[in-house]
Amino acid sequence: MPHNNQIRGLLTTAPFFSRRRGILLFCFIYFALNLLFFGRYPLVHSDESWLAGLTLEMMDLKSLAVTEPFFDLFPRYPHAIKVLFHFLQMPFISLGGFNHLSVRLLSLLAGGVSLLLFYRILAPSFGEKTAFLGTGLLALNIQFILASHTARQEVVILCLLLLVFYLGIDPGKKDSGAFRQGLVIALAIGIHPNAFLIFLPALCILLYRLVRREVKLKVLGLFFLPVCTGAAVFVLLSFFFDADFLRHYLTFGSSVGISADPFGRLRGFFVFYVKLFYSVTGTYTVPRQKVLWIFYGLILLGSVALLGVDKQKKHPLMVEGFLALVGLNLGLLLIGKYSQPSAVFLLPFLLLLFLSLVHRLRPSLKTLLPVAAALLFAVVSLVNIRPFLASDYLQYLGRIEAALPGEGAVLANLNAGFLFRDRDFRDYRNLAFLEEEGMSFADYIATNNITALVVPEELDFIYENRPRWNIVYGNIVPWYRQMLEFIEKRCVLLSEFSDPYYGMRINAYIAKKDWRVRVYRVLSPET
After folding, report:
1. C-alpha closest to that of 199 among 164, 236, 249
2. Cβ-Cβ contacts under 8 Å for 438 (sequence gap 6 or more)
3. Do the Cβ atoms of 48 and 100 come closer than 8 Å?
4. With pLDDT > 70 as the criterion, what percentage of the chain qualifies?
5. For residue 450, how many C-alpha atoms fall within 13 Å in the half-sphere facing its CB?
6. Residue among 32, 270, 19, 275 at smallest CA distance from 128
7. At how many degrees (to 10) do helices 83-96 and 100-126 cross?
8. How many other CB atoms are there within 10 angstroms of residue 266's CB atom?
9. Which phi-psi region, left, alpha or beta, contains residue 440 (left: φ > 0; alpha: ψ -120 to 50)?
């Protein structure tokens, strides 16, 4: 019989067990395991049905120049800045149907590709063993899991960010790499405006190389050519969709803080990180991970110290990872829109710095510290995910559907949007503009032929705690009392049920009590 060492040697040299195939197997296992709970964590956010609903409208009308059908009073104008993301969603909706699982599948696949790219970034500098450990760290991190389970653009942008970084790390391809980086960034503009957060890290690294005379000035031209061309194409296409695109887009930007003054941006930048540290949020799921933010802080301090004494710049990947972080933070500051899901963009580069620090230690610690970090990440992820495993989004939709009358539009929360594939509905965000349009609540119901109301207890909570939570639906004071009066005089209760997870969208109060959801039928005026 062969010796154990011989068996081990055969396994490690056999093509099937090669490390390249091993990383593919790892990503497949990651994908399969996440399928078990990606529909329950995080809770389905209204942004997911918002984006998917717009994709569905594009598919139904066979046009990209459309706006969301569930918004009529809420100001929306068509543009091309994220049309490629809707194109990506279309085959998933066509094959899997209009539901949260099919659109989340796109994010999970993008997460898997991100893991492959991260491995390819790490392997040349750290070796395949450390690259495996680093990829495992990324896969186990709760911020990455959250992004990979949410049908938004962040994980797709992260995938493209890693691709751009990967295209630029091979010294033999720096000239041609810049052009290809620009092409990827140009495509990213069609995914989300956060393509700027891919552009700035790449630019910072190119400028650093230019200063060190590692590349020539023409490389910047090769980089900017596709970026500028792509930006021009998407902007011109947006003007084709909406002749007043620039004014409308800037107006929307000012509503989310993009037009803030420099002091306001700096204050917002600081508050952004404070909120991430303390897990303060509105309706987005923000993981509880104070211990990880302390860990990230230590990584940054150690990296700055090492880079400060490394006069010969013997760790180019570490330098470029640090520059990528600088570019990302500069991008957040310049954009001024501090969206909490954007935190995932920082993660790969923080891990890159961590592995760079560990790589200088003695061999035993090179493995021990990443394994210890992986265990920490796994525990934090389990603590965050476990409370949500009891949620049931399909049950929530089923209870609403069972109570609805057979015809007419529905006024409901957008987090139930996946229920309305073949039925008109309107979201509560429209009601903030009733006064501006000279309408009452009753006028709105009649104008839209609304025959049912889905009223979460969340509205009562927001009104009782006004104006603290105006950020959710706008100021509900002008129409909330009108709604109660309308319900009393013109509605009949069809169903009432509790859902501690979907009866409340404000993250701090989810699952804190059995939040009630009521479904009413609107009586005809003659009744």
Report:
1. 164
2. none
3. yes
4. 92
5. 25
6. 19
7. 120
8. 13
9. beta
* Cα–Cα distance measured from residue 51 to residue 83, given in angstroms and rounded to the nearest whole number: 11
Question: Over 70: is that where the pLDDT of 173 sits?
Answer: no
Determine how many CB atoms are found less than 10 A away from the CB of residue 500: 15
Sheet holding 450-456, edge to edge: 425-427, 409-412, 450-456, 516-522, 491-498
Position 392 scores a pLDDT of: 96
Distances (CA, A) of 182 to 102, 179, 195: 30, 5, 11
């109060």: which residue's tokens? Answer: 509
For 456, other C-beta atoms within 10 Å of its C-beta total 22
Residue position matching structure tokens 């031209």: 221
Please answer whether residues 162 and 117 qualify as being in contact, where contact means their C-beta atoms are separated by less than 8 angstroms.
yes
Whole-number Å distance between alpha carbons of 495 and 497:
7
Q: Give the span between the Cα atoms of 489 and 314, in whole angstroms.
A: 76
**Of 160, 163, 114, which Cα lies nearest the Cα of 139?**
114
Q: Packing angle between helix 262-278 and helix 290-309, nearest 10 degrees?
A: 120
Contact predicate 275/340, CB 8 Å: yes
Identity at 499, one-letter amino acid code: D
Q: Can you tell me the distance from the alpha carbon of 39 to that of 29, in angstroms, rounded to the nearest whole number?
A: 17
Task: Report the distance separating Cα 418 and Cα 94, nearest Å.
Answer: 14
The dihedrals phi and psi of 521, each to the nearest 5 degrees, come to -100, 135
User: pLDDT per residue over 36-93, tens digit each?
Assistant: 999 999 999 999 999 999 999 999 999 999 999 999 999 999 999 999 999 999 999 9
Task: Decide if 181 contacts 202 (C-beta within 8 A).
Answer: yes
Query: Two tokens at 248?
Result: 């409308």
Task: Give pTM, 2 decimals.
Answer: 0.93
